[in-house]
Amino acid sequence: MARVGVVIPTYNRPEFLEQAIKSVFAQSRLPDELIILDDNTESVENEKIVCKYSQEFPFVRYIKNEVRLGVVDNYRKAFKVSSAEYLKILSDDDILHPDALSVAEKILDENPDCTVVGSPRIMIDGRLRFLKLLSFRTFGKLEGKMLIRESLERAGNLLGEFSSIVFRKDEADIDCFEFNGFNIRANADWYLWMWLASRGKVFYYDKPLVLFRYTEFNDQADLKVFLAGIQEKFFFITDRDFHKHLGVEFPEQLQVKAVGRLLPEIEKLRKDIESFPSFSELKESCQNLKHSFFSWLDKLPELTDFNYHPSVSVIIVTFNSENIIAGCLSSLVSELRKEDEIIIVDNNSEDKTVEVVKKFASNSPVSIKVLKMNENEGYSRAINRGAEVSKGDVLIFLNPDTLVTSGMVDRLVSALYEEDGIGAVGPLSVNVSYTQHISMFAPIFEYFFSGKDFLDCRETISRFLGLLFRNKTFDTKLLIGMCIAVNRDVFKMVGGLDENLFLGMDDFEFSWRLRESGYKLKIVPSVFVYHFGHLSFKTLPEKEGKSYQVQAVKQLWEKLIDYYGFGNVPTIDTLWGLDRKRFPVNFPQKKYNFMFRFSGIKKSREWYLNGAKLLKERPEIAVVVVSYFSSEDISHLLVSLKNSSYSLKVFIVDNSDSDEEFEKLFNVAVEIFGVENVKRCRPGEEENGTVVLIRNKNTGFAGGVNTGVRAAVRLGIPYVWILNPDTAVVRDTAFELLKTSVYTGVPVVTCEIRSMADPAKVQYNGYRVDLNGLMDRAFYVKEVSHLSGSNIFCRTDVFEKVGFMREDYFLYFEDDEFLNRLKAHGIRPVYTPYTFILHKGGSTTGGFLKAPSSMYYFIRNFLYYGKQVEGLPFNTLFHQLFEFYRRFSYSKDMLRSIIEAVRDYGLGITGKKEFPFSVSFEKDDVDIEALASLSLDFQIEELRRFLLNKPRKKDKFLELLRLVEIKRSAYDRA
Hints:
By secondary structure, the protein is an alpha/beta fold. The protein has 5 domains: 4-215, Alpha-Beta Complex (Spore Coat Polysaccharide Biosynthesis Protein SpsA, Chain A); 222-299, no CATH class; 312-538, Spore Coat Polysaccharide Biosynthesis Protein SpsA, Chain A (Alpha-Beta Complex), CATH 3.90.550.10; 619-841, Spore Coat Polysaccharide Biosynthesis Protein SpsA, Chain A (Alpha-Beta Complex), CATH 3.90.550; 852-973, no CATH class. It has 36 helices and 35 strands. Strands 24, 25, 26, 27, 28, 29, 30, 31, 32, 33, 34 and 35 form a 12-stranded mixed sheet that branches. A hairpin with a 4-residue loop joins strand 31 and strand 32. It starts with a strand and ends with a helix. GO terms for molecular function: glycosyltransferase activity. Belongs to the glycosyltransferase 2 family. InterPro entries: Glyco_trans_2-like (IPR001173), Nucleotide-diphossugar_trans (IPR029044). Keywords: Glycosyltransferase, Transferase.
């Protein structure tokens, strides 16, 4: 009978060590030896624990190191001290299932071809609570080398930690902490079982046999070890000698895909290093990882099995390109065959471009034709002239400020003929907008490469992409003009490029026209072309270049209007699949403000005539302002409303619950509008007057808005304008918002918000809010992705259709939730940049996230909104929440607000919260353990008590998050 042994290396976790030892003594098959290797030379705590059991269990050996060896050497020692034939190395914080040893012994006895036994393992926390089950999908006897390959492909340790396996000790004749001078720490367990698997088969048992403990303090959570783990994984995946050592083939194409799977870990590492300056010493290790990545890229092979047959004509339009054209041609000629051709169409360059091309052509193995234009006829016309004189079956339009890479022509042409109906294809690049940027397909380069790296390493990038995306293409609605391949017959059928577009927007128009003609557009991610970026534009005077661009946009907009009709042009994201935030082209004239179709309404000339008639009638607009002790701020708003070019009715809903504050508001309104124009009332009472001050109980922002809107509805007012009290409007804002709503047919609109302190600073641009300021690059009417409650213009019938704002939110995220409901009812609010309001920001709550009350409502409703509306998983929400916790760790009051918000979310508490909240830190005279076992609510409450007293206890806060997740998951299922 084989001897079975367990070795436990330990250092300084005596409370966990005792649990691990007890799990060994609880085995249905006791080991023949249990060895504890104590690396703590300064403490006797571990020894005391072992001595408690050594007399009862004579197979126990305790070895205390004379000098501290460290984790790696202590584990190395574990392999040497055991005389067992079947060995388990058990981490001092893990726990064995009672049958772990008997099951493994039986399997190894009955399967002499198996070298290692593994099983699923249960991840637990420091207090023995279930976190998750970790399991490989296949059970039984597995081919060892097959498992090694799959593990490398998935870039992950499939069998798990040392504690999760039992192995034949005589087969473990390696040092799993080193290979050919490369040190291994974080993944030594992975290396060990891969070596064992290379010597035989692996048996994977179908039930968990070990509890694997995970805490934020263990090795896996240490950032240095995490970085080492990534380096080791990269080594395992890419080192050919390592693969040979394991007896497996792991070709470069599989390596590329596996390296791509490391991206989430690399991204986490990058964020952690950026977030914590104390980790700056790791930057050298990161540079080593980057160096390893570059070295591996350099060794990737070329793909040589592409073999296209159609002839190719590459058409390059030049203008003052003498400094760049030779480089472009040098990179290109080796990619073409003798029967292919290059056509240079020079747009009357003023430099030596033509001379440079002719000199290059004299020694070129590929035919180069030069077509010299007598004047600059623009890009589109030049391309068409080149196409007219070309002979190739495939036309490739290439910018002169590009450098092509190996395989470019082969792969583009192959993709063009991949299936019927493909009109054009294009590569990946840098210095391009939108979907063809390399970061969209291989973001790993964003983390390792700077700008010049892309230029210097373009060939290695090409090899990586060729292996990663071999024979793959992706649908797109837009191909960027720096490099497009198109079938000659297709190009001729659709009429070539639009010659009305002198410079710019030709690729947008051509892509649109190809798709309207029934052709598909494809991105070929296996192709990389380096693009310097708009060097042709830079040869023009700045004013002239901008003029051409503006004119091109106008020409394209006019063409789209002729095709679809004014007001019926599909939006930019529909036409070209673009993120509108990134669309860089400004509208040249306000004439085009309302050309797009934002609603389901088909617009005609009659539509706009009726809209103009309605605007002339000047329908009534009610401004709704919710005030909470805002008498010091509201005067700016009231003055601006009085000075508006549009006559407005104003409802001020006072949520302060204060007689004194109500009187202050009244006096401010009277001072500005006159006593005869200001009325006071309670909700539902007589509400006529230019300014109506409504005495409301504090129902939060949403409740106050609803009170004001209901007052407007009762008076038959068709439009409401919701504004914060710390805002001010410009003279024509009301009319511009009304006009936007009327002409787009969208009943909910908003506009730009600027800082009151610095009006040049934009706080809201239709996509997000940032009180510190942001850019509004998309300067045109567009759909919003975020709606700010400080400025919403709305038809009142919308509330009848979608319902009022949710009052249980009380403060924050009620506008986001309202936007979601609007979209669910087919209403997609739009934003106009052609007017704005001014905003102070956060005055009613002491400033955004600057007061405990602000923090409380933000965190609580962030959780409700994120889970109920966005459907985000708890781990995503809690990861973001923990970032808030760390960011505000300097303030106990802010941490207490976060803690209280988490607890209230867990218990389903909504609505108003009394501030300051308090809690007794006295323990109730009850049986804590008994209650805790019965009541999850009780455990949450106990943690809340503890944290409100000691809010910086991070481990307790994480425990609170875990309990709240369990509570809310049960609530959601119910």
